[in-house]
Amino acid sequence: xxxxxxxxxxxxxxxxxxxxxxxxxxxxxxxxxxxxxxxxxxxxxxxxxxxxxxxxxxxxxxxxxxxxxxxxxxxxxxxxxxxxxxxxxxxxxxxxxxxxxxxxxxxxxxxxxxxxxxxxxxxxxxxxxxxxxxxxxxxxxxxxxxxxxxxxxxxxxxxxxxxxxxxxxxxxxxxxxxxxxxxxxxxxxxxxxxxxxxxxxxxxxxxxxxxxxxxxxxxxxxxxxxxxxxxxxxxxxxxxxxxxxxxxxxxxxxxxxxxxxxxxxxxxxxxxxxxxxxxxxxxxxxxxxxxxxxxxxxxxxxxxxxxxxxxxxxxxxxxxxxxxxxxxxxxxxxxxxxxxxxxxxxxxxxxxxxxxxxxxxxxxxxxxxxxxxxxxxxxxxxxxxxxxxxxxxxxxxxxxxxxxxxxxxxxxxxxxxxxxxxxxxxxxxxxxxxxxxxxxxxxxxxxxxxxxxxxxxxxxxxxxxxxxxxxxxxxxxxxxx
Length: 481
Ligand code: UDP
Prior knowledge:
By secondary structure, the protein is an alpha/beta fold. It folds into two domains: 12-257 and 456-476, Glycogen Phosphorylase B (Rossmann fold); 261-453, 3-Layer(aba) Sandwich (Rossmann fold), CATH 3.40.50. The chain is built from 19 helices and 15 strands. Strands 3-2-1-4-5-8-9 form a seven-stranded parallel sheet, sandwiched between helices. The protein has a six-stranded parallel sheet with strand order 12-11-10-13-14-15, with helices on both faces. Helix 1 (21-36) links the parallel strand 1 and strand 2 (40-45). Helix 12 (304-317) packs across helix 17. It is globular, with a radius of gyration of 22 Å. Uridine-5'-diphosphate binds at residues 21-22, 25, 268-269, 295, 297-300, 324, 354-355, 357, 374-377, 380. GO terms for molecular function: UDP-glucosyltransferase activity. It is an enzyme of class 2 (transferase). It comes from Amborella trichopoda. Residues 13-255 form the Glycosyltransferase N-terminal domain.
C-alpha cells in the first residue's frame, strides 16, 4: 500500500468506481491515464471486482506505472444480497437494486479508515453513484471530484426537465414536448423518461430517485466533475453544464481510446467468452465496414420473444453480424428459431457471455453498431467512427439516443411503437439497413471518430483538460499545506 511514510514523491489520487461494468471500465481507464501522467493511483474496490481487474494493473505495473488496488469487503449478507454479488452484473433480480445501493453506503466507515492509512491523496475521484463519498472526503479533508459515466448533454436535459418541468404540461405519455433552454430542439415524450418506460419497476425508481437526489447534492458540493466525453462532441452542452448549471467540469474522454494494444482491448472488464484470435480472424475474413455489431451492454436482458425478433431481423438484413447474448439468453437452444444458425453460418457469430467489445468495434470490418445506448457503448462506437442503431433501454439512454440521432445525426433510432411492446423484426431490419447503407450518416460518424482521436492526442482538448485538472489539484494541494 502507498503508505504515509512512502518515500515516492509522486502525487497520489484515489479512484472509486461503482461496482458495475459500465462504471468500472471507464474509471479504470481514467486511473491508467492518471498513472501515465506520473501520478500514483489507488483504485478502491471489493475482492471479487479486484480479481477481475488484477491483470490490467499487472500490465500497468510492467510499463512502470504506479497503481494499486485497495480492497474493501462488500457487505452482501448485511444488505440482503446473495454471497458474491459484488457487481451489478451479478444481481439476480432488479428487485435487489436498492439492497445493492444500501450495501455501498455501508462502505463509508471502512473507506474512510482505508484512506487514512494511505499516502495523503490529492483528491478522491468518486463515481457519482457513490454520493456518500462527498461527506467522507470532507471528513478526510480531501477534495472530491465526481466522475460521470454519462455526457454533459443528458445532464443538461435533466436540468431542463427539473427547472422548466415541461413534462407536466402534456396530456399523455406519448405526447412529444421540447426541452426548454437547450440550444438544439430536443423533443422527448414522458414514455421515454425512465420512470414511465419501466412502469413495472416504478417502486425501484422511487428508491433510485432518492439516490439520484443525493447524487445531485453531493456533486454540487464537490470540487468538480470529470466527464467521459470531449468538448468537440458536445460543445454547447459542455458550456451549458459549466455556465448554466454552474459546475466545474473536465471532459477528458473518450477514455476507451486509451486502450491501444490488443491485450488492453481484449481483456477490458473481464476475460472475453470467445478466444480473441477466433474473433479477429473471423473479422479479418469479412469485407471492410460490412459487419454489424449487436450488443446491449452488461446488464440489459430481453425475453425470448424479443430475442427471436432480433434473430429474424438480423437474418433478414443479410449482412454479417456479431451478436452478444448474456444471462439466460446464453441458452440459445431454448429460444433461437429453428435452423437459424445453419442459415446464417459463415456470416453470423453469436458470442455467449462477454465480448471483447473494443477489439470488435475498432476492427476495420465492423461497419455499424446496434446498441442499447449505454453511454460507454455509444462513445466507444462514436470514437471509432461508427454509425449507430439506437435502441435505448433505461436511465439516460433515451437521451443519449437523442444526442446521437438528433444532434450528431450519426445514428438511427429503433421505433418502439408496437402495441405488444415488442420491437418487430421488420423494424430491426429497417434500422439496420439504414445504418449500414446511409453514406452521409457514415461520413458524419467518421468525422466524429476523427475528432475523438484528436481530442485524446497530445495537444487535443481532452489531453489538455486532464493536464489542467492535474495542475489545478496540485496547486490546490500546495496552497493547503
Ligand atoms: N462491454 C464489453 N463486452 C460486453 C458487454 C459490454 O466489453 O460483452 C463493455 C462495453 O465496452 C462498455 C461497458 O461494458 O464499456 C458497458 O457500458 P455501457 O455504458 O455501454 O452499458 P451498461 O452495461 O452500463 O448498461
